[in-house]
Amino acid sequence: MRLVLLGPPGAGKGTQASRLAGELGAVHLSSGDILRAERAAQSELGRLAQSYMDAGALVPDDVILRMMAERIGAPQAAGGFVLDGFPRTIPQAEGLDARLAEIGRPLDKALNIAVDDAIVTRRLTGRWTCPTDGTVFHEAYSPPRTAGICDRCGAALARRKDDEPQVVAQRLATYHAETRPLIDYYAARGRLVSVDGNAEIDIVFGRIVAVCRGCG
Question: Which of 73, 77, 121, 171 could anchor a disulfide with 81, C-beta 3.0 to 4.6 Å?
Fold first, then answer.
């Protein structure tokens, strides 16, 4: 099965994509992981992407498309894939459809994990990370035994810049402006399915698996 996972920041796309790929016997293709790997390997595409990032610019759609197309067309993805973090824009979605048409592997479904903005904000702004060992806590869902202190090493916890309230608000605004239109894009093509992502991880995963089984 060939799937795209959609949803706002904080929807749990990475976690659910990894679990779903295992459930379906597919490969999990995370655009963020692939971009980091290309940069670390200093590949041609990795160096090109880094040049934009060093200049403080977004990596252009065509560079991301080339990067993802290589992985989508690889033999490892022949049995199916779950895309996470890609596409993010309509041009990327159009490019993806064109690439999949070229290799005769059309997308089966775009699965949207729908989460309310208020819940996204609570999930992200409540996260605290240990700067020493990377352990992540949440003040509501998985708090440390002592407030502000890492259970493992005793270091003072910090909030990542991405999880600051004003940054979360900006991330949501960007999502609604640039990525949420993909819901309409895939709905118009009869490929969209949605699940309620406001619940706990295991419950949402069960909903996703049920939907995928229903996709035939």
Answer: 77
